[in-house]
Specification:
The complex is a heterodimer of chains A (about 260) and B (about 150).
Chain A lengths: L1 H40 L3 H53 L8 H10 L34 E5 L5 H9 L4 E4 L2 E4 L2 E5 L6 E6 L2 E5 H12 L4 H6 L1 H4 L7 H17 L1
Antiparallel strand pairs in A: 1-6, 2-3, 3-4, 4-5
Helix pairs in contact in A: 1-2, 5-8
Chain B lengths: L3 E5 L5 H11 L7 E4 L14 E8 L2 E7 L1 H7 L4 H12 L3 E3 L9 E4 L5 E6 L1 H4 L6 E4 L17
Parallel strand pairs in B: 2-3
Antiparallel strand pairs in B: 1-4, 1-5, 3-4, 5-6, 6-7, 7-8
Classes of the chains: A alpha+beta (about 260), B alpha+beta (about 150).
Chain lengths: ~260, ~150
């Protein structure tokens, strides 16, 4: 079991490193964009274009690093699932062999009880929850992420993996239908896929379609509203977005940057 | 903010969709924006009431979008009623997303106006792709869709 623990930890560390790398590259892109803007302002157009191209390349690299981190996260989930299966098999085996033996001490039972799964309520009883879609994470939003009428985002620093683990093991509060509450956050579990989505709560923000679209623009253009508004995918909504739309998106952008 | 976003999952001509919206909701055609993916097909007249646009990902061919101004102009219709009106006029299937952050199921409206809840592939949706895994309830105009268990 310890080797599985180590494997899981190692994969998690690598995922974290990849995500940090993505963050660093993304930060570099912001600086490069700023440099390009300055070069453009002083009339060094060719250099500004080359710098902008470097910025685009940095964004692409950041995307690859994030994809690597996502892949490692998936791998870790698989390792964790394997660990769970192994633990179940061990428990089941030891249950049989322990018949007629001295019961565990109260303290040992209590310690195991804290870790052991509780009875599952709601859809997770038959549909194991998996992960949360990228479109819900501040750091993972891309221009192609779909904007719906209501969009709940997870800000950096929220331990959604721990929350999902709690849902998976029955330690979350089952509210109704497919909704669970854990650590002051409400999640939904999709059936039959098991995909988890954030609904509301601590560390989550809720945006409407235009606010989410504006945030995508800010994230894609280093926080520059002016550049975002020139992006064709944002420009199509120019007559529907207001200063308030941008203000809300800016607030979320700033919160996300501070917490990242 | 009211949001009427209806995504057509079968090819539909944007001009036809705009004409259908204009006729169905008595919108002067000039007050509907037509976005071709990189620019507006023609300058729109203020106040803009609605927009039709090319789809934004695989499986999404076109979309109708309206916000507060459309809601006021059209008399605050239900999103489903708007989707049925448009889908039956252009005779193409459309879907729209959940209206609450608590829901995850989308609604499919078939070309004949029959409709029901469907489940989309959440992973593919991350990339902007509309992929229907199955219907939660029978939809007579989309009989080939596999059923997914309700299981709540």
């Amino acid at each position: 079991m310890s080797s599985i623990e180590e494997a899981s930890g190692s994969v998690a560390t690598n995922a974290e490193s990849a995500r940090e790398l993505a963050g660093s590259i993304a930060s570099s892109k912001v600086l490069i964009d700023s440099l390009a803007a300055r070069l453009d302002a002083i009339g060094v157009e060719a250099s500004a274009q080359r710098t902008q191209a470097a910025g685009d390349r940095a964004e692409e690299l950041a995307g690859h690093a994030t994809a690597l981190a996502d892949a490692l996260d998936s791998l870790r989930q698989q390792v964790e699932a394997l660990k769970g299966l192994l633990a179940t098999a061990i428990r089941s085996g030891s249950g049989k062999s322990n018949r007629g033996r001295t019961p565990r001490s109260a303290s040992t039972a209590s310690a195991i009880g804290a870790q052991e799964p509780l009875p599952l309520k709601g859809p997770v009883a038959s549909t194991p929850p998996t992960g949360i879609g990228k479109r819900h994470f501040f750091e993972k939003i891309r221009m192609k992420s779909p904007a719906k009428e209501k969009n709940t985002l997870v800000l950096p620093g929220v331990d959604t993996e721990a929350d999902i683990a709690a849902i998976k093991t029955g330690h979350a509060n089952y509210l109704r239908d497919n909704l669970y509450e854990v650590n002051d956050r409400v999640y939904g579990v999709e059936t039959p896929t098991g995909s988890v989505y954030p609904v509301r709560g601590k560390g989550f923000v809720e945006l409407d379609k235009l606010e989410y679209t504006a945030l995508k623009g800010l994230l894609a253009h280093g926080g520059s509203r002016a550049k975002a508004e020139r992006d064709p995918q944002i420009a199509r909504f120019s007559r529907h977005m207001t200063d308030k739309t941008w203000e809300t998106a800016r607030n979320v952008f700033n919160q996300g940057q501070e917490r990242a | 903010m009211r949001d009427y976003t209806i995504v057509f999952i079968e090819p539909v001509d944007l001009a036809d969709l705009a004409a259908a919206a204009a006729e169905a909701f008595a919108i002067p055609p000039g007050q509907i924006e037509i976005w071709n993916g990189s620019d507006f097909a023609a300058p729109a007249v203020d106040p803009v009431i609605a927009q039709v646009a090319v789809g934004s990902g695989p499986g999404a061919y076109a979309e109708f979008v309206g916000f507060e101004r459309f809601a006021e102009h059209a008399g605050e219709p239900e999103l489903l009623a708007v989707a049925v009106e448009l889908a039956t006029r252009v005779k193409r299937r459309a879907v729209f997303g959940p209206e609450s952050a608590e829901d995850f199921r989308w609604t499919l409206v078939a070309a004949d106006g029959s409709h029901g809840e469907v489940v989309l592939d959440s992973d593919r949706l991350d990339d902007g792709a509309i992929t229907i895994l199955g219907a939660v309830e029978p939809i007579s105009g989309a009989p080939e869709l596999p059923r997914v268990p309700e299981a709540l």
